[in-house]
Design a protein that fits this description.
The structure holds two protein chains of two kinds. Chain A is 78% helix and 0% strand. By secondary structure, chain A is mostly helical. In chain A, helix 3 packs across helix 15, helix 4 packs across helix 14 and helix 4 packs across helix 16. Chain B is an all-alpha fold. Chain B has two domains: 45 residues; 213 residues, Orthogonal Bundle (MetI-like fold). Chain B has 13 helices and no strands. Chain B is flat, with a radius of gyration of 26 Å. The chains are: A mainly alpha, B mainly alpha. At the A-B interface, helix 1, helix 4, helix 5, helix 6 and helix 7 of A face helix 1, helix 3, helix 5, helix 11 and helix 12 of B.
Chain lengths: 494, 287
């Protein structure tokens, strides 16, 4: 009896402490969520159901969801969202790169080296300033030299804290303000990016026109070759990992889809260009060789099904992005002679249909190199036990081996966490950029799902449809997160 | 004697180290410089006259340095008002969230009651739900409450989060439970335990949560955009759009406004950097 009274007392105390937060969460989180589920199955449209026209509101079952799958818009905007998400592996790579740089000793190990460093920094900085002023550079040149010299001096004397602050600043202030800033930077007529780019392109145009077209074509082939080489390297890597029992069969086969995707798109694009055959033959030859390797050598160690998914998927996604970049350059080089004939124009960035998404991705990279991810990586890097590196040194590991066999596996939990969060954020992202920079355009090129929900829910007024889109998005997020947990976690726990 | 033998290899090792770290610095400087360039352009453009905006040189030319642009911003839009609104909303959200979250976290971390862990799991699962799902119903709630186009309408939906509760619970779990027992023996009430013992010891967590919440709401765009109609009640991100609308196309003024909205953030960042970095690195423990 006494204990039950005590228990009731405890519950009451707990309720007292919980009440303020739980009431708020119930009102502004739980209730809206339940309400929104109902909403998704009705036909509430503000154009029909408002204070002037009150048609009856009715349940329409899955009609909204059917419409969402059959109307082209949803799929197209989902495609846009996924396209923009291709920036994520690059951003994570950039964050890791920055963290690796920042984790090193900035003072060269001892006082004497630091003294040399400081002296040469001061010398270089003052020489650069003198040169800029003495050679009667424009005010702008002097100023930029001054900025660079300032960063150099503070960086060398202040060490990594200074660089970390500088790297992190773009991420910290990122928001509507920086989007507006970038909108002006990208402006084709008055923006500084094109002002700086145009002279370079002019030189490029004249030099392209000067060289015989075959040389330029060679660059196209070079880029295509690079793309194929990346695919080959990646599949070879997968096979080696599979052979050594590092990853399971599923984990070796499924990511191939991503590695082969750029080639397939290249094939579709190359149909009219006569490139398809080259790609096909290259791919078939390589695939055959891999098959021979697999059948003759088999695997040395076995590994449970699906094991190592996270790692192989991350690498393959990163390789896929690199391949797409190579493919893009191939396309550029292919068309270059034709375009350069009457001078090259700088791209119109966010106002051009093809350039809008890459523009947003470049801006995203600017804000993402020094992001929270960099700080997480930095913390993880300092937590790697130094004994592991010592052991690797004793074994005579090269720098690359040290990275792939010590650093990368040790960072796996961090990479996993970062990629889960980035996927969740990426699927729901893009609203602010679309609203402030492009209005979702040109011609819907930058409309992501979140912007679509905003348009449908708050501008068109199709509330039910917007709710359905939001739930479809949630299902996607949830599914991807589950997938990540199921496969990524195994890898992390190893 | 050993010095004599050791000297030549050490010097060459030092030379190698020097070139290694010089190379490192070159990469770091180049990267920081590139990342920093947009800000340089921003500040310089904010000091140009309108005619000079499109010109190739980044520096203000004949027109001189137009510091008056910054005053002009205040004349064209109620910038101070926007700024105060933003600070007001962010401060209230932060206060409410830190207060309610710390109480709930206390209940989850330091009190024993039946079903606690189950309720906590349920609580955590609400963190999975994307904010977009709640926007439309929340807007209807705001219409019902008559809070559309008011600042409380911005504050309320943002003020209660499961994330804050979760973060503070993690911090509170690290405090030794012997303290609770000692307090109980001394006859302190649970409230005293919470207010006088646990809360002061959770200070780093409170500061972290406060910074995150404040920053998030200072930047917040979607909800204010949907909610606000009257110019007087705009927050900073909404107000900035003015210079990018058909009404105001002056890039120099826009840049002045953008600079003014970024500078407070920079100050906050430099002052609170230590807490922020700790917080981000601790926050990831949930992974």
């Amino acid at each position: 009896m006494a204990s039950s009274i005590k228990q009731r007392r405890n519950t009451l105390t707990a309720l007292f402490f919980l009440a303020p937060n739980i009431i708020g969460v119930l009102t502004f989180v739980v209730f809206p969520v339940l309400f929104s589920i109902l909403l998704a199955f009705t036909n509430w449209d503000l154009r029909k159901h408002n204070m002037f026209k009150d048609e009856s509101l009715e349940f329409v079952g899955f009609e909204n969801f059917v419409r969402l799958l059959t109307e082209a818009d949803f799929m197209r905007y989902l495609g846009n969202t996924l396209f923009l998400m291709m920036g994520i592996p690059v951003s994570i790579g950039g964050a890791l790169f920055a963290a690796l740089l920042l984790s090193k000793d900035s003072h060269g190990g001892n006082r004497r080296v630091f003294a040399w460093l400081a002296t040469s920094a001061v010398l270089v900085a003052s020489c650069a300033m003198l040169a800029a002023v003495g050679m009667a550079g424009t005010g702008m040149v002097i100023l930029l030299t001054g900025v660079a010299a300032g960063i150099m001096i503070t960086g060398v004397f202040g060490g990594m804290t200074v660089y970390r602050t500088l790297f992190y600043t773009p991420h910290f202030v990122a928001g509507v303000a920086t989007f507006l800033l970038w909108k002006k930077l990208y402006n084709p007529q008055t923006g500084p990016i094109n002002a700086a780019l145009q002279p370079v392109l002019d030189v490029l145009a004249t030099s392209v026109n000067a060289v015989p077209p075959p040389t330029v074509y060679a660059l196209t082939w070079g880029c295509l070759g690079l793309m194929l080489a990346l695919a080959a390297w990646c599949m070879n890597w997968l096979r080696a990992q599979w052979r050594d029992g590092e990853i399971g069969t599923q984990a070796a086969i499924v990511p191939c889809v991503f590695v082969l995707l750029p080639t397939v798109i290249g094939l579709l694009w190359g149909q009219t260009q006569g490139l398809a055959w080259v790609l096909l033959i290259g791919l078939a030859a390589f695939g055959g060789w891999q098959m021979i390797q697999i059948t003759t050598r088999g695997r040395d160690f076995t590994c449970p099904r699906g094991e190592g998914f996270g790692s192989s998927l991350m690498i393959c996604l990163a390789v896929m992005v690199l391949q797409f970049i190579a493919l893009g350059f191939a396309a550029v080089f292919l068309n270059l002679p034709g375009m350069a004939a009457d001078g090259l124009d700088a791209p119109e960035w966010i106002s051009n249909y093809d350039w809008a998404k890459p523009s947003l991705m470049i801006m995203g990279l600017w804000a993402a190199i020094g992001s929270n991810n960099m700080l997480l990586y930095l913390a993880a890097l300092t937590n790697i036990p130094p004994e592991l590196y010592e052991a690797a040194d004793i074994d005579g590991a090269s720098r690359r081996q040290r990275f792939w066999h010590v650093t990368w596996p040790q960072l796996a939990p961090t990479t996993f966490f970062i990629s889960v969060m980035a996927t969740i954020g990426g699927l729901q992202g893009g609203f602010e950029m679309a609203r402030t920079m492009t209005q979702g355009g040109p011609a819907g090129a930058t409309t992501t799902l979140s912007y679509f929900i905003y348009i449908e829910g708050f501008e068109t007024g199709r509330l039910s449809f917007a709710a359905a889109v939001a739930w479809a998005l949630f299902i996607l997020v949830f599914g991807l997160t589950l997938f990540n947990w199921k496969f990524g976690n195994k890898y992390v726990n190893d | 004697m050993t010095d004599h033998h050791a000297a030549p290899p050490r010097r060459s090792a030092n030379t190698r180290r020097f070139f290694n770290s010089a190379g490192l610095h070159v990469v770091l400087i180049a990267l920081s410089f590139t990342l920093f360039l947009p800000f340089v352009w921003m500040v310089l453009t904010s000091l140009k006259s309108l005619e000079e905006v499109g010109l190739e040189s980044w520096l203000p030319g004949e027109g001189g340095w137009n510091f008056s642009n910054y005053i002009e911003v205040f004349r064209q839009i109620p910038f101070a008002r926007y700024f105060i609104n933003s600070i007001f909303v962010a401060t209230w959200v932060t206060l409410l969230q830190v207060f309610t979250s710390s109480m709930a976290a206390f209940a989850f971390a330091r009190l024993n009651w039946p079903g606690r862990d189950k309720v906590f799991l349920l609580y955590l699962s609400t963190m999975m739900l994307p904010g977009l799902v709640m926007m439309i119903p929340n807007y209807q709630i705001m219409i019902t409450l008559g809070l559309v186009d008011t600042l409380p309408g911005l504050i309320l939906p943002a003020a209660f989060s499961a994330f804050g509760t979760f973060l503070l619970r993690q911090f509170m779990l690290t405090i030794p439970s012997a303290l609770d027992e000692a307090a109980e023996i001394d006859g302190a009430s649970k409230w005293r335990l919470f207010w006088d013992i646990i809360l002061p010891m959770t200070r780093p967590g409170l500061i972290t949560l406060a910074i995150f919440t404040f920053m998030g709401n200072y930047h917040s765009f979607f909800w204010p955009l949907v909610m606000l109609r009257t110019q007087e009640r705009y927050t900073l991100p909404i107000g900035l759009l003015y210079f990018d609308s058909s009404a105001g196309q002056e890039t120099n003024l826009l840049m002045a406004a953008v600079t003014m909205s970024i500078v407070p953030l920079l100050i906050v960042f430099v002052v609170l950097q230590k807490y922020l970095i700790k917080g981000i690195q601790l926050g990831a423990v949930k992974g």
